[in-house]
C-alpha cells in the first residue's frame, strides 16, 4: 500500500482556472517526498484536494488506501497538515492548542494528555506550555504548528511551504525537526519553491509546473 496515491487528478476552479491538469504521483510509506514548483503551479491545490479543503474535478486520491473523497474521515485521520499560514488561535495556550486538536480528531482525554506531553518535550515547548500562542516568537509558532499537525499521530505529514518567508537560522532549525519526524517513520510530503530545501531533505522530488508534473 502507498502512503499517497494520486491518479489523473484534475482540479478546475469555478473561475475556469485549471489548477491541476491530470496529475499522478505515488509516495511510498516512510518516504520524504518533495513537490517542487513555482508559485501558482498547483501545489496548494493538490494538498487541499488531499485534505478535503477542495473537491477534485476528476481523478482519485488515496491516503494509505483510503479514498480522500468517499472515505474522507479515514483518509483525513491519516494526514497531519502543517499549513503555510500561521493559523494558530491566538487566544489559546500551546497546551490547549494541542489538546483541542486532539479532541477534534476524537482522541480520548488521557491519550491527549500523554501525546501533548510527548510533543511539548520533543519540540522544546514544555516550559512555554501555558503561554498564549500570540506571544510566541515566529520560530515557536512554527514549532507549535508542527506539533499540532502530529498530535493525532498521522502516518503522513504534509508540509505546505513550511519555510516561506522564514530566516535562514529558523529554516535550519525546522529542517532538523522535520528530518527527525521522518527518521521516526512518518511519511512526509513537503511542498516548496526552494530547490535547496528539496535537495537537502527529500529522497524523491516531483517538479510541478502549470498544473502538470514536469519531471
Ligand atoms: P501553488 O500552491 O503552487 O502556489 P496554487 O495551487 O495555490 O499554486 O494555485 C494554482 C492555480 O490555481 C493558480 O493559478 C491560482 O491562481 C489558482 N487558484 C488557487 N486557488 C484558487 C481558488 N480558490 N479559486 C480560483 N483559483 C484558484
Report on the structure:
This protein is α/β, with parallel strands linked by helices and 215 residues long. The chain is 35% helix and 26% strand. It is built from seven helices and ten strands. The strands form two sheets. It has a six-stranded mixed beta sheet with strand order 6-7-8-3-9-10, sandwiched between helices. Strands 2-1-4-5 form a four-stranded antiparallel beta sheet. Helix 3 (94-104) packs across helix 4. The chain starts with a strand and ends with a strand. The structure holds adenosine-5'-diphosphate. The site of adenosine-5'-diphosphate (ADP) has 12 residues, from helix 1.
**Neighbour order of strands in the largest sheet:** 6-7-8-3-9-10
| Fraction of residues in helix | 25-40%
Oligomer: single chain
Instruction: Indicate the structural class.
Output: alpha/beta
| Silhouette | globular
- Identify low-pLDDT runs: none
Order of helices and strands: EEEHEEHEHHHEHEHEE
Rounded to the nearest angstrom, the distance between the terminal CA atoms is 23 Å
Please describe the biggest sheet, giving its number of strands, its sense, and whether it closes into a barrel: 6 strands, mixed
What molecules are bound to this protein? adenosine-5'-diphosphate
H/I helix tally: 7
Using only C-alpha atoms, the radius of gyration works out to 17 Å
- The tally of beta strands, per DSSP, is 10
Chain-averaged pLDDT: 94
Give the DSSP E fraction (strand runs of 2 or more residues): 25-35%
